[in-house]
Amino acid sequence: MSAPRLIPYRGLEPSPWKNGLGVTREIGLVPSGAFDVGFRFRLSRAVIDAPAPFSRYPGVRRWLVQARGGALELRFDGEPKRQLERVGDLCAFSGDDAVEGVPLDGPSEDFNLMLADPALEAELLVRPLVGSMILHQPAGAWQVFHLLDGHAHLQGTPQALVAGDTLWIDPAEADRIAARVDGGGTALVLSIRPRSPN
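Above: the chain sequence. Below: its structure as tokens.
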């Protein structure tokens, strides 16, 4: 049985965006040589402190979640602007899109999911963490708990989480309760699993 793996924010190494116009910190990925980007999906955090066009990732589905800092405006070619104004605000878009990120109130830090494998689907839920939270993991799914703000504790272990930390849980064969977390703050819970056949 796969146990939750703690990925501390403080241990994430900065690296340049693909277009060199920003800096990202990779949380984790599932590698695959079947896709040009080299992964099935990838999780990261990025700080945007000046207007900058995002790197293009053709064929990749993207989700951006406000994690910390000021509001971020996303400007799309030929589409209405979208704003992430508070922690937990979310925007989904295609990696084919031409997008510029414009911080409105100082630097903005954002959580990124990039999903390259068309055989996978993702569910992202922003939830208040008040007391205890059960992490239910569907069969065959990666389950991820990312603490956007506040503090948390993985029950049954000495592991404590602060804002920016992540619990990564690899897939299991059957539905299960993968972990119990307690604390206070705002959590982002992701389930990345094989696409339904319908």
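The mean pLDDT is 94.
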